[in-house]
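Running this now, will post back.
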Amino acid sequence: MARAFASIFCYNVAMSLFPPYEPEVTARQQKRRRFRRVPIRYLVPNVITLLALCSGMTAIRMALEGRYEWAVACIMIAIVFDGLDGRIARLMKGTTKFGAELDSLADFVNFGVAPAVVMYLWALQEFKALGWVVALSLALCAALRLARFNVALDDPDKPAWMGNYFTGVPAPAGAMLALLPLYLGLLGEIDGASLKIPVLLYVPAVAFLMVSQVPTFSGKLIGQRVRRDMVLPILIVAVMFTVLLVSFPWIMLSSVCVGYLAFIPLSVFRFGKLSARTATSKPAVDSQKSEEKAPDEHQPS
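Update: finished.
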């Protein structure tokens, strides 16, 4: 009996350390995996992400050629594509881990590398090493912002209203804000040379906002349905905004950036108010739960 038990134990250890080689089964499984069809709903969001990446890389090329208007346009197109790929993936039920990783890498190029290169070539190149350090700070903070977003775990006890806020400025908004001096320079009303020194302070400030703990409004909890009486006004506002953006791009982009920066203190104030309200209501909820559990604890076994 002992000999049989020892032989079975040795056989199991050997099989775990040296599994049998089955080339026919492995090849057949690989062939099935190779020719297994992938639903089209998994491809569409990734195609949009790749288009956004192409747009970000094209922005770098336009900046190298000195065509800064087109460089800004390419980054704005990348921002639009970034807002579409995730939503389309969720609507089509085509979210995948591959798509999430691809989106993160594309965001780093589009909203970290591309704006940093554009601002370096436009205003920071004259400062040589110092200007390059400032450009690097924007790219590095964008990478850290995306990494923090990827590893963030949802807290099951987190209040629902916290889903309406980002921690720090998101990468697309950070890229748009970093280009604000370029918008002002392209307006022609302000001499671009006079903006180069303030850029040394402004770009690191935007980079800091991306990695900071400042709460910013996300708009994720805005309802997907609209009241019937608000359909026409929303359509008119959206169309007028698009027309104004195409007709007066630098004025509109500058106004959006200034409005976003002005809205950050309001987001901080609203977040603090909601946090204080949650902190005061939590002890009452905890005491109520303890009172509900108290009778059960004293029940006889």
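The two ends are 46 Å apart (CA to CA). More later if anyone needs it.
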